[in-house]
Design a protein that fits this description.
Helices cover 39% and strands 14% of the residues. It is globular and about 50 Å long. The chain contains 6 helices and 4 strands; from the N terminus they run H-E-E-H-H-H-H-E-E-H. The protein has helices at 6-11, 58-63, 65-73, 80-87, 91-103, 122-130, and strands at 18-20, 23-25, 107-112, 115-120. A two-stranded antiparallel ribbon has the order 1-2. Helix 3 (65-73) packs across helix 5 (91-103) and helix 4 (80-87) crosses helix 5. Strand 1 and strand 2 form a beta hairpin. With 131 residues, the chain is α+β, with helices and mostly antiparallel strands. Residues 36-131 form the HTH arsR-type domain.
Length: 131
């Protein structure tokens, strides 16, 4: 850091990160400068780079590749729109899969204003960790 500066330190953290002017940007982070109206930020990014690839294993064979992938992507709260963008699945398909995952107790949903955030439940995390 002393030789190259803080930008070089952050530039090598994760391939999804890049600098835009004076900001560190990632497609998985919440939008910059959100209008919080004093309510705080509801999204968690602590597990943003946690490696959970549930495709191609026993869990994917059990619940299907798309559902396993969606389950892995909900380790941090995320919306249907964000999941569709990340997976390439249609909004309707993501919504149907999330409904099944929620009914099975693998994800939970929480409404905040006009958004519904989905998060892996304890049972879902246990399944991911076993696979």
């Amino acid at each position: 850091m002393a030789e190259d500066g803080i930008q070089q330190v952050f530039a090598h953290l994760h391939p999804a990160l890049h600098w835009s002017g004076d900001r560190l940007v990632s497609p998985d982070l919440p939008a910059a400068d959100p209008d919080l109206n004093g309510a705080g930020i509801t999204r968690a990014v602590g597990t943003l780079w946690e490696a959970r690839d549930a495709t191609g294993n026993g869990l994917a064979r059990l619940i299907g590749r798309s559902r396993a992938q969606l389950l892995a992507y909900t380790t941090s709260p995320t919306t249907t729109t964000q999941l569709a963008a990340r997976t390439g699945l249609s909004l309707g398909t993501v919504s149907q899969h999330l409904t099944v995952l929620r009914e099975a107790g693998l994800v939970t949903s929480h409404r905040y204003r006009h958004e519904v955030n989905y998060t892996t439940s304890d049972l879902g995390i246990a399944l991911l960790e076993r696979s």
